[in-house]
């Protein structure tokens, strides 16, 4: 009698996410975890055997920067939950409280082999709120969560200036945006010090949810993820983060290729994308598929993103393939949407590669994942089959 909690995926060509490639390998899944992978492993007694001969297996793909569940497919624009644009500093907002698990984008993600995403607030505010990392299997939100809060979303450049200039509020310039970031960190430092003084006196203190959220960044519990396209905005984001000693990621990094060596020297982690778009604003005029190539050559840690719905989530593999066309080695392109994306999110202990002990998030393809003609046939999330073509 088969034990359906134990699966034996047999005979596939396997890219494990770490750089290892198996010509004809099998994978053992026990419950929600990977228990083994290799070319010479035997099926456990009673395991459900799934024959994958002639097919290709990768880790489930990971998109580190999307707005799924907030900017929902097929909904009117005025029902978009990505930005509360009434205050340029709104760290107290949480994606978790707006995430809609029945957004059809989650099912489309599974059809594209994407099993994990980080959903973020938009870039209308200088500080826009807290993100959440979730699996793409639609369910009760709490069952989808990998980590929440996952980061503090921030933004520099055209977007917050465009939003607040007509409202006659800061920021009207890039200087104003940088000031608001610094001011938020200083106010949070003062808030933390006052609370510590109250605790030492055994006295109660009033709470401020926004300051508590920024203190999480200062304490290293979550990173500071800054939307920035232009090279000067990228440098400002790094400058501010280093001034306050906080962990950070650069999101989009459109002109990162212009300062790749500088980013490498600062040990920056960056996401690149959405690159499969036009150039609808000035700060995108230098957008190019050469960006991930030059970042890789400089030794910058990067991943590739869709910024869904800017690029539909099911086309994450296509984005990776276009980076290959620009000169990125295929292995690096696959890592950029698997293990590198997991490292960008600090969840590499759970996902991003097919290794014993990790979540059994797996995509099965009918061809090369970097060939846009290839289709995902099966997608497993936590060892369970949730998509079958």
Q: Kindly report the CATH topology of the largest domain.
A: TIM Barrel
CATH superfamily of the largest domain: Metal-dependent hydrolases
SS field, number of helical segments = 11
Rg to the nearest angstrom?
A: 21 Å
**End-to-end gap:** 26 Å
The backbone outline, from C-alpha atoms, is globular
* Strand runs, count: 18
- CATH architecture descriptor of the largest domain: Alpha-Beta Barrel
Describe the model:
It is a single chain. With 389 residues, the protein is α/β, with parallel strands linked by helices. The chain folds into 2 domains: 1-59 and 352-389, Urease, subunit C, domain 1 (Roll), CATH 2.30.40; 61-351, TIM Barrel (Alpha-Beta Barrel), CATH 3.20.20.140. 28% of the residues lie in helices and 25% in strands. It is built from 11 helices and 18 strands. It has helices spanning 104-111, 141-144, 158-164, 174-200, 209-218, 231-244, 260-265, 290-298, 316-325, 330-336, 339-344; strands at 3-15, 21-30, 33-38, 47-51, 56-59, 61-66, 114-119, 127-130, 132-135, 145-147, 152-155, 224-228, 248-252, 269-272, 301-304, 362-365, 376-381, 384-388. The strands form 3 sheets. Strands 1, 2, 3, 4, 5, 16, 17 and 18 form an 8-stranded mixed β-sheet that branches. Strands 8-11-12-13-14-15 form a 6-stranded mixed β-sheet. β12 (224-228), α6 (231-244) and β13 (248-252) form a beta-alpha-beta unit. The mean pLDDT is 96.
């Amino acid at each position: 009698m088969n034990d359906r909690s134990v699966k034996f995926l047999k005979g596939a060509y396997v890219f494990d996410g770490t750089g290892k490639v198996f010509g004809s390998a099998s994978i053992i899944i026990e419950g929600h975890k990977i228990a083994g992978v290799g070319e010479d492993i035997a099926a456990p007694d009673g395991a459900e055997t799934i024959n994958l001969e002639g097919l290709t297996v990768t880790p489930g793909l990971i998109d580190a920067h999307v707005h799924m569940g907030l900017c929902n497919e097929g909904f009117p624009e005025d029902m978009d939950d990505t930005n509360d644009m009434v205050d340029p500093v709104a760290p107290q907002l949480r994606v978790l409280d707006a995430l809609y698990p029945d957004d059809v984008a989650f099912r489309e993600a599974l059809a594209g082999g994407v099993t994990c995403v980080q959903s973020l607030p938009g870039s209308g505010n200088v500080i826009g709120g807290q993100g959440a990392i979730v699996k793409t299997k639609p369910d009760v939100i709490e069952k989808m969560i990998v980590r929440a809060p996952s980061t503090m979303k921030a933004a520099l450049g055209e977007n917050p200036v465009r939003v607040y200039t007509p409202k006659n509020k800061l920021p009207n310039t890039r200087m104003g945006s940088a000031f608001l970031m610094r001011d938020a960190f200083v106010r949070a430092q003062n808030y933390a010090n006052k609370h510590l003084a109250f605790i030492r006196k055994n006295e109660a203190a009033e709470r401020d949810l926004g300051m508590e959220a920024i203190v999480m960044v200062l304490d290293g519990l979550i990173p500071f993820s800054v939307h920035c396209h232009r090279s000067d905005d990228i440098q400002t984001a790094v400058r501010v983060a280093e001034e306050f000693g906080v962990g950070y990621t650069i999101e989009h990094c459109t002109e990162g290729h212009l300062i790749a060596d500088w980013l490498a020297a600062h040990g920056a982690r960056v996401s690149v994308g959405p690159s499969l778009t036009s150039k609808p604003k000035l700060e995108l005029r230098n957008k190019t598929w050469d960006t991930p190539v030059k970042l890789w050559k400089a030794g910058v840690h990067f991943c590739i993103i869709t910024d869904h719905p800017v690029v539909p989530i099911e086309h994450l593999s296509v984005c990776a393939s276009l980076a290959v066309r620009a000169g990125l080695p295929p292995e690096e392109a696959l890592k950029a949407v698997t293990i590198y994306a997991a490292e960008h999110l600090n969840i590499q202990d759970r996902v991003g590669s097919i290794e014993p002990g990790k979540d059994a998030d797996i995509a099965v393809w009918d061809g090369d994942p970097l060939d846009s003609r290839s289709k995902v046939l099966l997608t497993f999330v936590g060892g369970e089959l949730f998509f079958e073509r």
